[in-house]
Amino acid sequence: MAVRANYIAGMLEELAPRSLAEEWDNVGWQVGDSQAEVSAVLVALDPSPAALAQAKTVGAELMITHHPLIFRPLKRLRLDIPAEALIAQFLAAKVGVYTLHTNLDNSPQGTSAVLARKLGLVETTVLSPSKRQQLYKLVTFVPPAHIEAVRRAVTDAGAGWIGKYSHCTFQTAGTGTFLPQEGTTPFIGEIGRLEYTDELRLETIVPAERLGQVVEALQAAHPYEEVAYDVYPLVQKGQAYGLGCLGLLPEVKPLADFAQQVKTALSLSALAVVGEEDKPIGKVAVCGGSGSSKVHQASSAGADVLVTGDVKYHDAQDAALLGLALIDAGHAGTENPLIFMLADYLTRRLKRHDVTVHTYCAPDIFRLI
Ligand SMILES: [Zn+2]
Fold first, then answer.
1. Fewer beta carbons within 10 Å, N or C terminal of the chain?
2. How many CB atoms within 10 Å of residue 23?
3. Which pLDDT belongs to residue 69?
4. How many beta carbons lie within 10 A of that of residue 337, not counting itself?
5. Could you tell me the distance, in angstroms and rounded to a whole number, from the CA of residue 335 to the centre of ligand 1?
6. Domains recognised in the chain with CATH numbers
7. CB-count exposure of residue 172 (10 Å: 0-12, 13-18, 19+)
8. Is the per-residue pLDDT at 7 higher than 90?
9. Which residues contact 225 (CB under 8 A, 6 or more apart)?
């Protein structure tokens, strides 16, 4: 069974909430009908004419891209301006575009985490944390016979994670009171009589991006007509969000060997490298896309090398002065791995639906001659 485009957008929102995007960015829906039926999806780095041709070939009604189709606010749509004509072509072909850009870059499962995994890094952390996850305490009151169903519903919806422990909750027994008014159909008690009933106070922790789904799951699983629950903002924060990733190689190796490893892992024909070939590389910073502004942060974090794309000449000079090796593996080269991660994620999430997921990898615009 095909699904509506918005259903797929909701799955992507769980992976990279729009709240993680930079203020200047334009993420989410770019063009299209969020209610359209989707039977095939194309995942691409750019909403390019070539990717649109591929979408038409495979019959994709929806394209998921990393880079936005509409970046600056539009004041008109002219067919004699190539970038604007491209938007019209997507509309004419009825191919919707949904973008995950800096929200995916800032996500702990996003652009740089995928690159770090591709390069075999272990013990990874965020290179440049800019935000921390907002956490809430959810408290509800449940009749004992329904406690397991409610606990299961809220924790399956994403509540109760503390580090690598899931399904963390706490419960205490007590007595609830309520007086059903005219027009109610109480699960326990009767209209006009003050009821005293055994209840369990169930509490758990919920990250901000899961709060809506958890409250919905609570209300669906709880037997009461009116579910009593409280949501408290917490002072302590959850996991870090931000650009780049820092990690370790399982064993130290010379820069020349590590550069070869990067080339093979990313299927590239060439790389630009700054640093001595025999420099030992153990701690690695990566930033998918355009990350040469992270040279100083990578150096102060103790990285031996920074792997990124779009390296500017003067940033390369800074790296050399700091004694930080630098590998420019290209913007598309360092971001293409996330296309496969997104495709895998959607394939897994859509496995009960009849939706095919295709990938389109951006060829590098720059050719080596
Ligand atoms: Zn990019």
1. C
2. 5
3. 97
4. 21
5. 6
6. 3-101+335-360 (3.40.1390.30), 111-131+241-329 (3.40.1390.30), 134-233 (3.30.70.120)
7. exposed
8. yes
9. 184, 185, 186, 187
What's the CA-to-centroid distance between 204 and ligand 1, angstroms? 37
Rounded to the nearest whole angstrom, what is the distance from the C-alpha of residue 95 to the centroid of ligand 1? Answer: 21
* Residue 245 to residue 212: CA distance in whole angstroms: 29
How many Cβ atoms from other residues are within 10 Å of residue 177's Cβ?
10
Q: How far apart are CA 35 and CA 7, in angstroms?
A: 9
For residue 44, how far is its CA from the centre of ligand 1 (angstroms)?
11
Backbone angles phi, psi at 366, to 5 degrees: -85, 130
Rounded distance from Cα 201 to ligand 1 centre (Å): 47
Report how far ligand 1's centroid is from the alpha carbon of 131 (Å): 20
Mean local confidence (pLDDT), 296-309:
97
In the chain the beta strands, taken as DSSP E runs, fall at 3-4, 28-31, 37-38, 40-44, 62-65, 96-99, 122-132, 135-142, 169-178, 195-207, 229-233, 240-254, 272-274, 280-290, 305-309, 325-328, 356-360
CA–centroid distance, 330 to ligand 1, in Å, is 10
Dist. CA 100 → ligand 1 center (Å): 10
Token pair recorded at residue 232: 């408290």
How far, in Å, is the centroid of ligand 1 from the Cα of 336? Answer: 9
| pLDDT tens digits for range 330-367 | 999 999 999 999 999 999 989 888 899 999 987 777 77
Strand duo 169-178 + 195-207: pairing: antiparallel
Taking only the tens place, the pLDDT of each residue in 52-78 is: 999 999 999 999 999 999 998 899 999
Residue 142 C-alpha to ligand 1 middle, in angstroms? Answer: 47
Q: How far is the CA of 22 from the centre of ligand 1 (A)?
A: 13
Amino acid (one-letter) located at 257: D
- Residue 185 Cα to ligand 1 midpoint, Å, equals 55
- What one-letter code names the amino acid at 48? S
Distance 66 CA to ligand 1 centre (A): 7
